[in-house]
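To: structure desk
From: M.T.
Subject: fold request, one chain
Message: Could you run this one when you get a chance? Sequence is below, nothing fancy, just the single chain.
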Amino acid sequence: MRSLQTPRIPSATFALGMLLLWACAAKADARLDGTKPAQWRVTWTEEPSTKATVSWSTAAQGDSHTLRFREKEGDDEFSVQLAESGRYTGGDFELYYHHARLTDLKPATAYEIQMVSDTNESPIFYFVTAPATDREFSILHGGDSRSDQDARRRVNIMISEMVAQSHDNEILSDDILALAHGGDYIVSGNRMDLWSTWLSDHELTATPDGRLLPIIPARGNHDKGKPFNEVFGFPEDDLNYYSLSIGSQVKFITLNSETSTAGDQAKWLANELSQTRKSHRWLLVQYHRPVYPAVKTPHTALKSWVPLFERFNVDLVCEADGHVIKRTLPIRDGKPDETGVVYIGEGGLGVPQRSPKTDRWFVQSPGMADKGNHVFVLTFRKNVLEGKCVLEGGKLRDEFTRNARNGL
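Reply: Done. Structure tokens follow.
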């Protein structure tokens, strides 16, 4: 089977390739000008087989904002969905958001989309809904895309390459369907000028044929303020914890480590894990602040969430925040246990990397710790979950497997 990672190629060829990619990248940055659509993105926060939020930005308020959409392989006329619009908060930076909420979509179906603001039209893009059946596929996970814009753009270009390559054959398990982002998109979540730069850079994740990769967003400690909900189309007062079924056998739960990890969120998590473990083969969780960190001190979720992870046998936990690479050995009751939970992270989508504390017991073999810009590729097979950590430039830094627990 062809590897999901970007191929490791000689340095001279790589340098030439990067120059060509940067040339393409310059064309990918849509200029913010009046009501010209820009900063396009697709977000999954509920029922991704039938729903999606398509969003874009304009520099001017405008009067009319709609999304045209239709099945990519069909010959139907475009349908039209009105967008919810408003001005982003966060300083004096004037920018407007537009969210078209699509429902009643067909699972595992490509949809062409075109954003229209007043008389200005975006290029035609497409995205693909999640499957509703039990099939093999992959997703990406990473976090911390703040602070180093050049690195962020390079990683985004690599993601575009990886997504395009993953769909360039008939092997379903290769197909990358979404990017789960573990938070800390920018340095200061209340500064809309920084969000705007991040949104423009995110355009670089689109593939050359116009495929938009859906985001599954988590809130980080640098993402405080209203803009986070405005960027990703959450309701104004949403608490940003939710769950998705991707296919019939993968449950992906996003938690919010920036609010109380006990109380209502812990009760919701206990109920969600209880119901999910009975019905899904794979059970994953993402959030920002790590409970078994390779650099920092453990977050409060160590007490409020970890006992639930272990009680309901979560297969994999995805963390961020530390600015390192780590994979723990399996952990149960605060010690190594082959039946325990594995934690990966901790953020390398465009942030200066720290040196991990490699003497910590939970990153000893068969765990690991390192540093470098990176993204994880998670591949869901019927009996095995395969993970790969891919460094900027395409080098495979780590790989691991988790066996299915419940035999579904």
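Reply (cont.): The chain has two domains: 38-128, 137-403. Let me know if you need anything else for the meeting.
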